[in-house]
Structure formats: structure tokens, C-alpha cells
DNA sequence: GCCGTTTTCGGCCCGACTGTTTTCAGTCG
């Protein structure tokens, strides 16, 4: 395993999240114990920075560079070292004896924070979700001062939410929903501007909740319209400038109304990431400026805030696109004038992973071809499943050659679009492909992917992929990690070997834009770019609507800092085909 | 517990909303 930061991030950030998890737990306990809030914040900040570290913390520790991580001083560096060498942090072991694990877990319930957790534990000995639920149902909480019916109800609701919570929602669901909300509120009286912010605007692959920001002279109208939307399942709060609802599907949506003069500052603030905002605020402080969600102040005077660009302007920074606001080097790049010229949807000239009714797709060859032409692309590849994928009615070699002929005929008739005949070839569990070279040779484009044997060893699966890469007709590996967000983890893979293989054989890696896949992910994209490996963004569409997923794929590579030259889809056809010569 | 071209000590972000109060504490982002 090499020491490259991005590969490490992909395969081995286990220690990072273990340590950041422990620091957060320490912070929770200190909070419950009502300790110095700044000490608590120090732990939280350190946890955030460790979680967002682009490499393995063990490597950083080996180089003696722990102190270089923002928020890590002598004490916390010592605790990290202690954990890496002994697997434990002694101080934490002491703290957890004071506050049982079950008590800590109550912090996850909405409406419950450190004060109530401690209060319930101290007064009623409540140390688990179940005990709290029982106490609330028996109205025993109401016997305590400051707790009445409403609080008890909210606690029960919160427990219910935690119990059925499915965790984060993927972009494929959140993105259209946010758009629908924005569209529905656009026409409300007094609304000047309206936009989704938060992790959704940064296009993270999964999001916790949706944040909508509104510039309106009549906030009450916005609030009324918002809580009356048909998607609303429950109104969590409704105020003059801030409201929250939970949709019928359980997704929380927050809305916030600001004045025009604060629009830009609020947009920056609510877009985040938190780590990025902290960096900006720190820079501002050094310049004697103060950034808040309302604007930028200098000596108590407001000097910026109306437009988001102004926030970066006053700091002397070029505008940083939302997708890379993660404090993983974008501030430095901006300072040095080295921000990437990120790929845009309009740069995409084709889609190279499409299914038709020859296998498990819905559209005919002709319908799919016309659908891609409508998307404004000048070329596309049909890549139906091959024979061993029986569940998807994979095509055998004979049918594949027939389809190839059909496509040639179709190309003569169709105007404004060039269809490339291809296939999504199965990588069998023994590393062979289920289509012969003789047939692959007839195709313009073949991608290979794993659809079976997910449980094999890391070495075996890696080897299978490397075998496929060595085949001169395989131009790209489709959905390389095999993960399905919220459903299935990625199979185990030696990513160093996969990246090396891709580089040596000139094989591209796919960014599959299917919302459950988004595979390879943003971090891997950044790694690929560093190594000069090309990526190709494909929708894997089986229907007309799914062609729209391209937007999600583009957002993945944008988060991975990719520029048009890093992405095969941006090339004109001739150059595309030339780039494929292995 | 961290940090430093104002500082090695004394700062460190705070406003909105709810539910309980009768002027405010707790939670959240």
C-alpha cells in the first residue's frame, strides 16, 4: 500500500474516523459534564479536521506532522499518538466510566442535548433509549421541573425518528426534491431569490437535510407557503425567518429567509462546509474583518454581504465553486490563483454507458438514440449487458454482432448524433470476460464491470479487474467499486493496484452517475487526475429520465477537482476514439 | 484545548426557535 494521500483516503481512513469519533465522544461527555465550552469546541474542531483529512492520520503521525493539522496542539497530538500505539485514549477511558455509553447515545435524539441527558440520568437513572421512551410514555418526565407535556411529546417523536431513521439521503432523491421545493416557492409574493444551500449545493453524494435560503421582503408569506407544501409530513418549527419541516418520507427541510443585503453572506454561510467557513472566518479575523451569516463587518461597519462573490473578494480570493468548499486545499489554491477550471455539464459531449431493450433497458435502439440527441449530445455508446448476466437478459455474442449491424444502419439514417456500438462486458469470477476478443474487436467501445463474486478476497477481485484492464478492447472499467449507497458496501479492492493498472494499460475509470453508485467517488477522481488517468462520466441509463443523472456524475468529478481535459466525454469524437487506443 | 505580524495569556460566533417560564434555558445549525 503506497503512501499517497488520496488512495489512503479511499481505502484506509478507518483510523481517522475512529479517532474523530472518539474526540467527538469526549466532547459529548465534557458537554454533559458542563465543562469549559471552548475546550469542548477544541475537541469538535479537531474531530472535524481529522475526519476531513485527505490522507491516513497514521502517515501524518509517522512523519511527525500531527501538529500541522489545524486544531491539533501538543495535547491532542499526544492523544492521537496514544491511540495509534495502544488503541486507547486513557483520558477517554476515565471519562466513559463517569457517563455510560447508553447515556451518550441519547445525544442522538433530536430535541435532546447535553443538559437533558444529564438531568434524566441524574434524576431518573435513564441510560438507554428504551428507558427514556418508557419514562416518557408513563409521563414520569413531566414530574421534573421544566419538563411538561410538550417536551415529553417531542422526546417521543425524536425517539421515533431515531428508531426509523435510515440515515442520509442520496442526491438522486434530494436533488429533485429540493428543485421541486424551489420551484414551488419561486412564485410566492415578495420572493426575490431562492436557492438550496448546504451539502446539497456542494453536491455531496449523500445529504442529511435540505437547506433552502430565500431573499424575500415578505417572510411570512414564504413560511405559510412552505409549511403548506404537499410534501410536508410534519411541521417541526415555524418562525418569522426560520422554519423546519419533515417530509412524508422523513427528510428534514429547513428554510431560512434573509434580507437582500445579507443574501450573499447567508448563502456562503449556509453552503458550508463548516470547515471551509472556519477557514474563511479565520482569514477574515487576521484582516480585522468579521464574517457572519449577515455580512462582512469592518470596525462595526458592514462592508459586504449582498452577493456571495463579495465574501471572497474582501478576502482577496477568487470565487470558489461550492463543490470544492471542503477545506481540502481549495483556499490555498485560490490564494495561489491555481483553482481548477471545473468541468461543467455543457462540456459533456456524449454518454457512453446506455442500455436498450436488447438487454434490460426500456427504450429501443432508435428511441434511446433520439433521446440522447435530445440531451444535446453529439455521440453516445450503446452498452447492453452481455450473456452471463442472465437477470438482465444479457446479449450473447451473436446478438451483439447483430446489434452492431443495426447500429451501423441506424447511423446512416439518424442525423445529428453518432451512435457507437459497445457492450458492458462481465468480468467473470475467474477473471475472464464473457465475450471473446474476436467479437470485442468488432465493437468501437467496450467497458467491463463486476456483477458477481462480490465476496471474493481483495486480492482476487483486484486481480479480476487488472485482467480486464489488460484486454486491449476494454477501454474503461464501469462502476469500479461496486458500492450501492445505502444498500451495499463496495467490494474490497487494492486501489493502488487498480490505479496503477489503469495508468499502465491506458484504461479509463468510469464515474457512474447512477445516484446509488456515484462510482468512482470524488476522492478517487482527484487521485485519478493526479496520476493522469482519464475518467469517463456515464449515466448507465436504462430509461429516458435516467439520462438526467449526468448532472450528478458531473458534480462528482467537480468535487474531485476535474477539468475538461481530465474527462473523456468532453472530447470531440475523433479525439475520443484516438484516446482509446491502448 | 488551541493559538499568536495586536497576544505565550486571554480570547475563542452567536442568533433563532421552542417550551417553559414570567425573563430565560436548552437545542440547533
In angstroms, what separates the terminal alpha carbons? 26 Å
- Strand order in space, largest sheet: 11-12-13-14-15-16-17
Mean pLDDT score, rounded? 90
Number of strands: 17
- Estimated radius of gyration: 26 Å
The residue fraction in helices comes out at 40-55%
- β-strand amount: 15-25%
Helical element count?
25
Name the poorly predicted regions: 1-12
What coarse outline follows from CA principal-axis ratios?
globular
Major sheet characteristics: 7 strands, parallel
Question: Which structural class should the secondary elements be placed in?
Answer: alpha/beta
Structure description:
The chain has 25 helices and 17 strands. It has a seven-stranded parallel beta sheet with strand order 11-12-13-14-15-16-17. A five-stranded mixed beta sheet has the order 2-4-7-6-5, sandwiched between helices. The protein is globular. The chain has 582 residues and is of the alpha/beta class. Helices cover 44% and strands 15% of the residues. The protein binds one DNA strand of 29 nucleotides through helix 3, helix 5, helix 8, helix 10 and strand 6.
Amino acid at each position: 500500500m503506497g503512501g499517497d494521500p488520496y488512495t489512503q483516503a479511499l481505502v484506509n481512513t478507518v483510523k481517522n474516523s475512529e479517532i474523530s469519533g472518539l474526540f467527538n465522544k469526549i466532547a459529548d461527555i465534557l458537554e454533559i459534564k458542563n465543562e469549559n465550552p471552548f475546550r469542548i469546541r477544541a475537541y469538535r474542531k479537531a474531530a472535524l479536521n481529522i475526519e476531513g483529512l485527505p490522507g491516513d492520520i497514521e502517515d501524518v503521525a509517522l512523519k511527525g506532522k500531527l501538529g500541522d493539522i489545524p486544531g491539533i496542539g501538543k495535547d491532542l497530538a499526544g492523544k492521537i499518538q496514544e491511540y495509534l500505539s495502544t488503541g486507547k485514549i486513557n483520558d477517554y477511558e476515565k471519562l466513559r466510566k463517569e457517563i455510560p455509553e447508553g447515556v451518550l447515545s441519547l445525544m442522538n435524539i433530536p430535541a435532546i442535548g447535553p443538559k437533558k441527558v444529564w438531568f434524566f440520568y441524574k434524576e431518573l437513572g435513564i441510560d438507554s433509549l428504551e428507558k427514556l421512551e418508557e419514562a416518557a410514555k408513563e409521563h414520569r418526565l413531566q414530574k421534573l421541573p421544566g419538563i411538561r407535556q410538550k417536551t415529553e411529546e417531542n422526546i417521543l417523536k425524536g425517539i421515533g425518528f431515531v428508531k426509523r431513521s435510515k440515515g442520509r439521503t442520496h442526491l438522486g432523491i434530494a436533488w429533485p426534491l429540493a428543485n421541486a421545493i424551489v420551484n414551488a416557492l419561486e412564485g410566492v409574493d415578495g420572493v426575490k431569490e431562492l436557492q438550496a444551500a448546504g451539502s446539497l449545493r456542494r453536491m455531496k453524494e449523500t445529504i442529511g437535510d435540505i437547506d433552502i435560503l430565500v431573499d424575500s421582503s415578505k417572510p411570512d408569506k414564504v413560511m405559510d407557503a412552505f409549511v403548506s407544501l404537499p410534501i410536508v409530513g410534519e411541521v417541526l418549527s415555524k418562525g418569522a425567518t426560520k422554519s423546519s419541516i419533515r417530509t412524508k418520507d422523513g427528510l428534514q427541510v429547513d428554510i431560512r429567509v434573509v434580507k437582500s443585503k445579507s443574501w450573499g453572506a447567508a448563502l456562503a454561510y449556509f453552503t458550508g462546509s463548516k470547515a471551509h467557513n472556519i477557514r474563511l472566518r479565520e482569514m477574515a479575523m487576521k484582516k480585522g474583518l468579521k464574517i457572519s451569516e449577515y455580512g462582512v463587518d469592518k470596525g462595526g461597519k458592514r462592508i459586504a454581504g449582498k452577493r456571495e462573490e463579495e465574501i471572497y473578494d474582501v478576502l482577496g480570493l477568487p470565487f470558489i465553486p461550492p463543490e470544492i468548499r471542503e477545506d481540502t486545499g481549495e483556499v490555498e489554491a485560490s490564494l495561489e490563483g491555481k483553482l481548477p477550471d471545473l468541468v461543467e455539464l455543457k462540456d459533456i459531449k456524449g454518454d457512453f454507458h446506455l442500455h436498450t431493450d436488447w438487454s434490460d433497458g426500456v427504450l429501443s435502439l432508435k428511441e434511446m438514440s433520439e433521446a440522447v440527441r435530445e440531451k444535446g449530445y453529439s455521440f453516445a455508446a450503446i452498452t447492453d449487458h452481455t450473456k452471463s448476466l442472465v437477470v438482465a437478459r444479457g446479449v450473447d455474442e451473436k446478438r451483439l454482432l447483430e446489434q452492431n449491424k443495426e447500429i451501423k444502419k441506424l447511423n446512416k439514417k439518424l442525423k445529428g448524433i453518432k451512435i457507437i456500438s459497445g457492450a458492458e462486458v462481465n468480468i467473470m469470477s475467474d477473471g475472464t470476460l464473457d465475450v471473446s476478443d474476436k467479437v470485442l474487436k468488432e465493437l468501437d467501445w467496450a467497458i467491463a464491470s463486476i456483477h458477481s463474486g462480490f465476496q471474493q478476497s481483495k486480492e482476487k477481485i483486484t486481480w479480476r479487474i487488472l485482467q480486464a484492464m489488460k484486454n486491449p478492447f476494454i477501454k474503461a472499467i464501469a462502476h469500479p467499486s461496486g458500492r450501492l449507497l445505502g444498500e451495499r458496501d463496495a467490494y474490497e479492492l487494492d486501489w493502488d493496484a487498480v490505479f496503477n493498472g489503469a495508468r499502465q494499460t491506458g484504461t479509463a475509470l468510469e464515474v457512474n452517475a447512477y445516484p446509488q453508485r456515484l462510482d468512482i467517488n470524488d476522492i478517487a477522481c482527484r487521485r485519478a487526475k493526479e496520476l493522469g488517468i482519464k475518467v469517463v462520466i456515464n449515466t448507465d441509463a436504462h430509461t429516458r429520465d435516467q439520462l438526467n443523472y449526468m448532472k450528478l456524475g458531473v458534480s462528482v468529478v467537480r468535487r474531485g477537482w476535474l477539468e475538461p481535459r481530465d474527462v473523456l466525454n468532453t472530447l470531440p469524437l475523433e479525439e475520443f476514439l484516438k484516446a482509446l487506443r491502448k
